[in-house]
Amino acid sequence: MVVQDIETRELRYFVAVAEELHFGRAAERLGIAQPPLSRAIRQLEHRLGVQLLDRDRRGVALTEAGKALLHEAKTALDAIAAATRRTQRAAAGSRSLVLVTKAGATHELLEQLLAAAEAEPDPVDVEVLLCEVGEQAGLLRDGTADVAIMHRPYDDLAGFDTEDVLTEGQVAILPRAHPLASREKLLLEEVQNVPDLPIARWPRLDGTYPEGPGPEVRNQAKLAQLVALGKTLLVIPASSRAWQWPRHVAVPVIDAPDVTTVVAWQPSSRSRTVASFVRKAIEVRERLMVSDAQDS
C-alpha cells in the first residue's frame, strides 16, 4: 500500500470541518470560500483512498476513518506548532521556561518550585502561565508551555513524562453559613447529596460535563462566587484552597480519593532548562516527604 503524504494545510482544513461538522462554518473559521474547502477535502479522501465524511441532507458526520484522522491530525498540528515555538525560543538564546498551571491550584507548592528554580547559581527565568480547568494538556502539547503542573487522576496526562511531587487528600469548599461548614470532617456521600447545595460539575477529559443538578464550572472566579452565594459546593485537593474567600469554609472529605500533583513535560524534550526544573521538583518532593515524616 502506497503511503500518501498529507500537507499541513489539508490537516487544518479537515480538522475545521470535522469539528464544525458544517462546511460553511468551517470555511468561515478558516477565512476561505466554501467551494475550495469542499474540493480540498474530496481530494484528500481521494488520495488517501478512504471516505472521511458522510454527507447527506441532514448534514455532515465523521466516518470511523474520519474519527481516526481527526485524532491524529490534531496531534500532528500540535506537534508542528510546538516545534515552531520551541525552535524560535532556542534561536533567541533565551534561558527561559514557560510553566502552565491551573489558576488557584497548589499555590504553596508553586511558590516552592519557583523558589527552588531561582536558587540556582544561573537561574532560569520561569514564566508562569495561568489557565482554567483542563487546559494544561493542550498548552503543553502545542508548545505554548514547556512544563505543566497537573493533577492525577483529573487531568489528561496521556503521552507526557511526569514526576509525582505531592499526594494529598481533598476538602469540600462550602459557604460559611451552611450547616455542613461547622463539621470537622465529611464523607463523600454527604457532599454529593446536599439537596440545597448541588456539587459543582467539572469538565471531563473530553470536555463534556457529567450529569447532575450542579452548575457547570471551569472558571475559578465564577466558581468562588457561586460558592459564596450558596449556590454550589466543590471538592478539591487540600492545597488548592489557597484561593478560597473569607465567606468559604474548607472541610476535609476523609474518604475522597487522593490527588497527586505532578510536573509534566513532553517526552521528546531535550531542553536542559526543562531537565533542571524537573530536578528541582524532585528536590521539593523530597523536602516535603521529610517534613511530613517529622510532623507525623
Quick rundown:
With 296 residues, this protein is α+β, with helices and mostly antiparallel strands. The protein has three domains: 8-79, Winged helix-like DNA-binding domain superfamily/Winged helix DNA-binding domain (Arc Repressor Mutant, subunit A, Orthogonal Bundle); 95-162 and 260-295, Periplasmic binding protein-like II (D-Maltodextrin-Binding Protein, domain 2, 3-Layer(aba) Sandwich), CATH 3.40.190; 170-253, D-Maltodextrin-Binding Protein, domain 2 (3-Layer(aba) Sandwich).
List the helices and strands and how they pair.
Layout: H1 8-20, H2 23-30, H3 34-48, E1 53-56, E2 59-62, H4 64-92, E3 96-102, H5 107-118, E4 125-131, H6 136-141, E5 147-152, E6 161-168, E7 170-175, H7 188-191, H8 220-228, E8 234-237, E9 248-253, E10 259-265, H9 272-295
Parallel strand pairs: 3-4, 3-5
Antiparallel strand pairs: 1-2, 5-10, 6-10, 7-8, 7-9
Helix pairs in contact: 1-2, 1-4, 5-9
Question: Which features does this protein show?
Answer:
D-Maltodextrin-Binding Protein, domain 2, transcription, about 300 residues, Arc Repressor Mutant, subunit A, 10 strands, WH-like_DNA-bd_sf, three-stranded antiparallel β-sheet, single chain, alpha+beta, 3 domains, transcription regulation, five-stranded mixed β-sheet
Describe the structure.
With 296 residues, the chain is an alpha+beta fold. It folds into three domains: 8-79, Arc Repressor Mutant, subunit A, CATH 1.10.10.10; 95-162 and 260-295, D-Maltodextrin-Binding Protein, domain 2 (3-Layer(aba) Sandwich); 170-253, Periplasmic binding protein-like II (D-Maltodextrin-Binding Protein, domain 2, 3-Layer(aba) Sandwich). The chain is built from nine helices and ten strands. It has helices at 8-20, 23-30, 34-48, 64-92, 107-118, 136-141, 188-191, 220-228, 272-295, and strands at residues 53-56, 59-62, 96-102, 125-131, 147-152, 161-168, 170-175, 234-237, 248-253, 259-265. The strands form three sheets. A five-stranded mixed sheet has the order 4-3-5-10-6. It has a three-stranded antiparallel sheet with strand order 8-7-9. A two-stranded antiparallel sheet has the order 1-2. Helix 1 (8-20) packs across helix 2.
